[in-house]
Design a protein that fits this description.
Length: 98
């Protein structure tokens, strides 16, 4: 199963990396490495994440890369990373699940 990234998720990762790197570059690199490792594992175990509480749909799931939520949709033959956002931000399910 392949993992693909939505444009929104790519933009959020770039913004988050820049935000962390502004204060601590090494921490940003570690966070990014954990993010890549965690999302790559979805290609083998796409159901490892929990259902997104706000959505309550089995196809919309999330894994954590502390303190960020990686929200994805599991389709028949691919995983689509929809959003990467801080756990304290309110999630707008309709905005990410287009």
């Amino acid at each position: 199963m392949r993992v693909i990234w939505s444009p929104l998720a790519e933009e959020q990762v770039a913004d988050t990396f820049g935000y962390i790197a502004a204060e601590r570059l090494a921490a940003a690199v570690r966070w990014f490495e954990r993010l890549v490792e965690r999302t790559e594992s979805l290609s083998v175990l796409p159901d490892q994440g929990r259902m997104v509480p706000e959505a309550q749909r089995s196809s919309l799931r999330e894994v954590l890369v502390d303190p960020y939520r990686v929200i994805y949709r599991r389709d028949e033959d691919e995983v689509v990373v929809l959003s990467v956002q801080h756990e304290r931000r309110e999630l707008d399910v309709e905005a990410i699940d287009q």
